[in-house]
Amino acid sequence: MTEEQVASLFDRTRVASEIPTSVESTGFGLYLSRLILEAHAGTISCKSQLGKGTTFTVELPLPNS
Fold this sequence. Notes:
By secondary structure, the chain is of the alpha+beta class. It has a single domain (about 5-60), classed as Histidine kinase-like ATPase, C-terminal domain (Heat Shock Protein 90, 2-Layer Sandwich). Helices cover about 25% and strands about 20% of the residues. The protein is built from 2 helices and 2 strands. The model has no long low-confidence stretch (mean pLDDT about 85).
């Protein structure tokens, strides 16, 4: 993915425009994932190298014992 694509991945207004038409998607999955993680004091991030691959990282705090 390009830097511009990565920068907007988790935005509410982003809709997946580059997916094949045979795939049904609203494009809100990553936005909803971010909202759920933030509600649990977590984070989601993305690093991508064009033509090499993309890595998503999800971090959640450990519960207090």
